[in-house]
Amino acid sequence: MDKETFLARVDQYHRDGWRLAIINTTSILPAEGMDGGAFDISWSFANDQLIEHVRERVLPGEEVPSISASFGAAFLYENEMRELFGVNVTGMALDLKGQLYKTSTIVPFAPSAIRARLDALGRGDATPKHEAGAKKA
Questions:
Q1: Which of 68, 70, 69 is nearest to 79 (CA)?
Q2: Cβ atoms within 10 A of the Cβ of 72, count?
Q3: 84-110 pLDDT, tens per residue?
Q4: Tally of domains in the chain
Q5: Is residue 137 part of a domain?
């Protein structure tokens, strides 16, 4: 992820009067070539009837810069990303230090946590959806 380019784009949305609509994080299970899994993160911005998305694939441990300097309400999404998925969000305006959610599992939606639950259920060999449609040569 090119952090400077990303933050410049987000700041431009702010200067142009766009609002933050949502930040969505999805876990991608570990697979061949992606042993630790990954996250697909989408930041969606709205302006009148227009909506635009910025999407990045982020590996576990990779830093994701906070956009809360431009969009204050982002701190809720960013704390959620950290607590539920284990995404390494840096520079949040308000870091709730793991106190947003009370869960029985630490980072329950991290790829490794999902894989562990599938293994415990005897479904560890399940093909991730992102691979199911891929054709083998």
A1: 68
A2: 12
A3: 999 999 999 998 987 888 888 888 888
A4: 1
A5: no
What is the value of pTM for the model shown?
0.82
Instruction: Please give the structure tokens belonging to residue 9.
Output: 């784009």
Residue 101 lies in a domain: yes
| Domain, as residue range, for 70 | 3-130
The token duo for 69 is 């300097």
| 9 domain-assigned | yes
Q: 23, 41 in Cβ contact below 8 A? A: yes
Pairing of strands 63-65, 38-47: unpaired
| Residue 86 maps to a domain | yes
Tell me the per-residue pLDDT of 34-51, one tens digit each, with 9 for 90 and over.
Answer: 888 999 999 999 999 999
Of 58, 65, 76, 21, nearest in space to 43 by CA: 21
Q: Which residue type, as a one-letter code, is found at position 113?
A: A
Contacts of 131 (CB under 8 A, 6+ apart): 31
Strands 19-28 and 38-47: antiparallel
Confirm if 93 and 68 have CB atoms less than 8 A apart.
yes
Q: Read off the DSSP letter of residue 128.
A: P
CATH of residue 32's domain is: 3.30.460
